[in-house]
TrEMBL record:
GTP binds at residues 224-229, 243-249, 268-271, 326-329. PROSITE patterns: G_TRME (PS51709). Homodimer. Heterotetramer of two MnmE and two MnmG subunits. This is tRNA modification GTPase MnmE. Binds 1 potassium ion per subunit. Exhibits a very high intrinsic GTPase hydrolysis rate. Involved in the addition of a carboxymethylaminomethyl (cmnm) group at the wobble position (U34) of certain tRNAs, forming tRNA-cmnm(5)s(2)U34. GO terms for molecular function: hydrolase activity. The keyword Lyase does not apply.
Length: 447
């Protein structure tokens, strides 16, 4: 087993940079660098670090975490040196010259922690999410997952399935002796309860995934109504080009907003109209694609040029959607004005009127789409896929449960086994070698 090392803190110029070494040669490496015995476990001590030729690298705090009480479960050393590229380069040169030491690959520390049983795959993913979290909601969700909330849920279900399986198997052994039904019947009830729990866990409106990835909001509407102006106002910077020429925007432009802890990926799109310009046609095609695919539609109209009716706006009004009438500084909305059945918010990007009300409305919508529920929720397609596969297997098992004799019971047992296996792939309790690379390679180096 190699001993791996990496910068664990952010790269670039900083007061302090933290380096981590993990593996069987960590202690020897620490002692070679400092020229002294490793300090007592988990105590920071000041040491001078030198390379093989005695050249000083830097002076800093070093810590020693003997296995198994470390992040990876292996021998780990931590070096707190001065931040900066030259220090890092000198340290890496010295470490690479030591036997058995090499730079870590992305996610390798966490992978070793997983392989040593210190965390399961959902906790490892939670850790990656916490490092990447940009909003309060994301941070809380990641912390909960890292704390093992999802692992506990899935492992609990899996344990229940394994228990049912044991009962079914004992029943299979006795079927020929005509003992069965009394043992199997309660098992079928438990399996049905589990399948129902999985279905309700799946019917979460994709909240966790949305919170992790951002709720997608498409700003759409006719040309020249002020869509790009609105994007710039929301972003508080000049992201999009604004002119008085209809058809200015062609490409889809995105900004990420933090709306009460939920990230919103807000996209400005081309004004929708028939055009003979091939570039604009492509822009309109992309705008419609976003209007259809995104989580929320923000339809912008022009108060001074309201459409005669909402016919032709059906796709843009698909709920959840918000309708605003911009340029309120030019024309007031008729009393009680509604568009396609929707309440219309008056807005003026120019004067700022209505921006606050729009942000409030968006925040409410974000909370409906993605705010954390306080329960352990699915945060990745990987989880969703496996839970759905488990629920499908249990539904199949329920179909066989009506049959009689050992053959039917064997079919039930096989599906229960598949369901348990599927849940096991989420936490990594069953053999998942093929998915490990995909999961850990997305980590940053030093994690
Ligand atoms: N009076 C007034 N003019 C506005 C307001 N918002 C935007 N405008 C003007 O409306 C014109 C069009 O603005 P854009 O933001 O480019 O409109 P758009 O919907 O992105 O236009 P396309 O990308 O061409 O579809 C510009 O001249 C803006 O300055 C507003 O609240 N009041
Ligand atoms: K324009
Ligand atoms: Mg525009």
């Amino acid at each position: 087993m190699d001993t791996i090392f990496a910068l664990a803190s952010g790269s670039g110029t900083a007061g302090v940079a933290v380096y981590r070494l993990s593996g069987p040669a960590a202690r020897a490496a620490l002692e070679a660098l400092t020229g002294r015995a490793a300090p007592p476990p988990r105590q920071a001590v000041l040491r001078r670090l030198r390379d093989r030729d005695g050249g000083e690298i830097d002076r800093g705090l070093v810590l020693w975490f003997p296995a198994p009480a470390s992040f990876t479960g292996e021998d780990v050393a931590e070096l707190h040196l001065h931040g900066g590229r030259a220090v890092r380069a000198a340290l890496y040169r010295a470490l690479q010259a030591l036997p058995g030491c090499r730079p870590a690959e992305a996610g390798e520390f966490t992978r070793r922690a997983f392989e040593n049983g210190l965390l399961d795959l959902t906790q490892a993913e939670g850790l990656a999410d916490l490092v990447a979290a940009e909003t309060e909601g994301q941070r809380r969700q990641a912390l909960r997952q890292m704390g093992g909330a999802l692992a506990a849920l899935y492992e609990g279900w899996r344990a229940e399935l394994v228990d049912c399986l044991a009962l079914l198997e004992s029943d299979i052994d006795f079927t020929d002796e005509d003992l069965p039904d009394d043992v199997s019947a309660p098992v079928f009830g438990r399996l049905a309860d589990l399948a129902a729990a999985m279905r309700s866990h799946l019917a979460d409106g994709h909240r966790g995934e949305r919170l992790r990835e951002g709720v997608r909001v498409a700003i759409v509407g006719p040309p020249n109504v002020g869509k790009s102006s609105l994007l710039n106002a929301l972003a508080r910077r000049e992201v999009a080009i604004v002119t008085d020429i209809a058809g200015t925007t062609r490409d889809v432009l995105e900004v990420v907003l933090d709306l009460d802890g939920v990230p919103a990926v807000v996209a400005d799109t081309a004004g929708l109209r028939c055009s003979s310009d091939a570039v604009e046609q492509e822009g309109v095609r992309r705008a419609m694609a976003r209007a259809t695919a995104d989580d929320v539609r923000l339809l912008v109209l022009d108060s001074s040029a309201l459409p005669a009716d909402a016919a032709g706006f059906r796709e843009l009004l698909q709920p959840p959607s918000i309708v605003v009438a911009n340029k309120a500084d030019l024309a007031a909305l008729p009393d009680g004005y509604r568009f396609g059945g929707s309440v219309v918010l008056p807005l003026s990007v120019r004067s700022g009127e209505g921006i606050g009300a729009l942000l409030d409305r968006l925040s409410v919508m974000m909370a409906e789409c993605a705010a954390p529920t306080g329960e352990a929720g699915i945060t990745r397609e990987r989880h969703r896929h496996a839970v759905a596969a488990a629920a499908d297997a249990l539904d199949r098992a329920a179909g066989f449960a009506g049959g009689s004799g050992s053959v039917a019971l064997e079919l039930v047992a096989e599906d229960v086994r598949l369901a348990a296996r599927s849940l096991g792939t989420i936490t990594g309790r069953v053999d998942v070698e093929e998915i490990l690379g995909a999961i850990f390679s997305r980590f940053c180096i030093g994690k």
